[in-house]
């Protein structure tokens, strides 16, 4: 039996098919083309994401993205902007592929400038909980209706508790954006798993989180507190090869693993959310169809305070009960 369903909601998309949403040369045409391509592949709505950038790039790209959000074509599809940085840790590993020289301390005034550039379209802000001033920024952003998520950090239990009390509501790609080697007990992963007040975003592309880790996060957090994201990089949807992204030489392998050999870390994902949800649909994770729709549609909308009806409900994916795979509405799996 095949069931037609509304598409998924992705809170972290950095680009698609060669278009970098944080690139200093981003054009309105290229941005619109990337959005159309992604929206045709099982994603019903998403947050274009800008990573830590120069002020000139923010001043150029945020208004450009905001203009597209306001267009009739993308109404109810581009749900706002996710700012992943610049208020994150500059520590190696925690900073990921972000340029550590561009990281800024938490600053409500700078956040307001970025929000104004975005025409009020920033809906999600990722910050590091341990930074001085992080709690003040979280309270300020939350008061402006922005969901605050904790990530790219070295925070422990006390810092995460403090930020939760200040209004943080989520964890950005839990299990990633941290160094390869961490203290055995006092680290952001354990603290994030134990934080009952925070939903966990997870990159379920099969590369960012090994299956046992992903299974443990699912069990610890529970379906109601999980949000699947793609963390799609500008190279998502591209063929395997060597590319330049985030200011570095990166490698996209046949398997879909995208990594930065110099830094020894992943460089975002090459997957769409459809591919991520198909990974989560594998029987070993024990998730029902309703669970999958929760983590890939209902929960991300709830985090943003958006009712599902506002993004439309036309079928964008088809679920095959026998194979437990999602495909396009025409029944074909995406390439």
Notes on the structure:
There is one protein chain. The chain has a single domain, classed as Metal-dependent hydrolases (TIM Barrel, Alpha-Beta Barrel). It has helices at 28-39, 55-69, 108-117, 134-143, 157-165, 188-194, 211-221, 273-280, 289-304, and strands at residues 2-6, 8-13, 15-16, 19-20, 43-51, 81-84, 122-127, 147-150, 170-171, 199-203, 226-229, 241-245, 248-252, 258-260, 265-266, 315-320, 325-328. Strands 2-5-6-7-8-9-10-11 form an eight-stranded parallel β-sheet. The protein is 29% helix and 22% strand. It has 335 residues and is of the alpha/beta class. The chain is built from nine helices and 17 strands. The longest helix is centred in the last third of the chain and has 16 residues, at 289-304. The radius of gyration is 18 Å and the shape is globular. A hairpin with a 2-residue loop joins strand 3 and strand 4 (19-20).
Major sheet attributes: 8 strands, parallel
Please give the count of helices: 9
For the record, give the distance between the C-alpha atoms at the N and C termini, rounded to a whole number. Answer: 22 Å
The CATH class assignment is: Alpha Beta
The structural class is: alpha/beta
Please mark out the parts with pLDDT under 50 across 5 or more consecutive residues, or reply none: none
Q: Superfamily at the CATH H level?
A: Metal-dependent hydrolases
Supply Rg: 18 Å
Strand content: 15-25%
Regarding quaternary structure, how should these chains be classified? single chain
Q: Any idea of the CATH topology?
A: TIM Barrel
Shape: globular
Domain count: the total is 1
CATH architecture: Alpha-Beta Barrel
Task: State the helical fraction.
Answer: 25-40%
> Helix and strand string, N-terminal first?
EEEEHEHEHEHEHEHEHEEEEEHHEE
Number of strands: 17
Average pLDDT, rounded to a whole number, is: 94
């Amino acid at each position: 039996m095949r069931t037609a369903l509304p598409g998924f909601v992705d809170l972290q998309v950095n680009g698609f098919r060669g278009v970098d949403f944080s690139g200093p040369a981003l054009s309105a045409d290229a941005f619109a083309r990337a959005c159309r391509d992604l929206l045709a592949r099982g994603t019903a709505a998403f947050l274009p994401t800008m990573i830590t950038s120069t002020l000139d790039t923010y001043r150029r790209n945020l208004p450009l993205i905001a203009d597209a959000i306001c267009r009739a074509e993308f109404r109810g599809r581009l749900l706002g902007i996710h700012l992943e940085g610049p208020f994150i840790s500059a520590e190696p590993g925690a900073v990921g592929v972000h340029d550590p020289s561009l990281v800024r301390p938490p600053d409500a005034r700078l956040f307001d400038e970025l929000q104004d550039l975005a025409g009020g379209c920033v809906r999600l802000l990722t910050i590091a909980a341990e930074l001085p001033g992080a709690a003040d920024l979280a309270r300020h952003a939350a008061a402006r209706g922005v969901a605050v998520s904790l990530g790219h950090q070295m925070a422990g239990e006390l810092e995460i508790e403090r930020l939760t009390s200040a209004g943080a509501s989520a964890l950005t790609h839990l299990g990633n954006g941290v160094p390869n080697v961490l203290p055995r007990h006092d680290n952001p992963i354990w603290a994030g798993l134990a934080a009952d007040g925070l939903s966990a975003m997870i990159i379920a592309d099969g590369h960012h989180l090994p299956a046992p880790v992903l299974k443990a996060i699912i069990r610890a957090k529970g379906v109601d507190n999980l949000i699947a994201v793609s963390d799609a990089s500008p190279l998502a949807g591209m063929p395997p090869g060597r590319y330049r992204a985030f200011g570095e030489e990166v490698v996209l392998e046949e398997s879909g693993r995208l990594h930065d050999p110099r830094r020894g870390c992943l460089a975002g994902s090459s997957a769409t959310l459809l591919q991520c949800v198909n990974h989560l649909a594998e029987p070993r994770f024990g998730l029902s169809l309703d669970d999958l729709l929760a983590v890939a549609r209902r929960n991300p909308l709830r985090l943003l305070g958006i009712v599902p009806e506002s993004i439309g409900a036309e079928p964008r994916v088809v679920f095959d009960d026998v194979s437990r795979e999602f495909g396009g509405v025409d029944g074909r799996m995406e390439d």
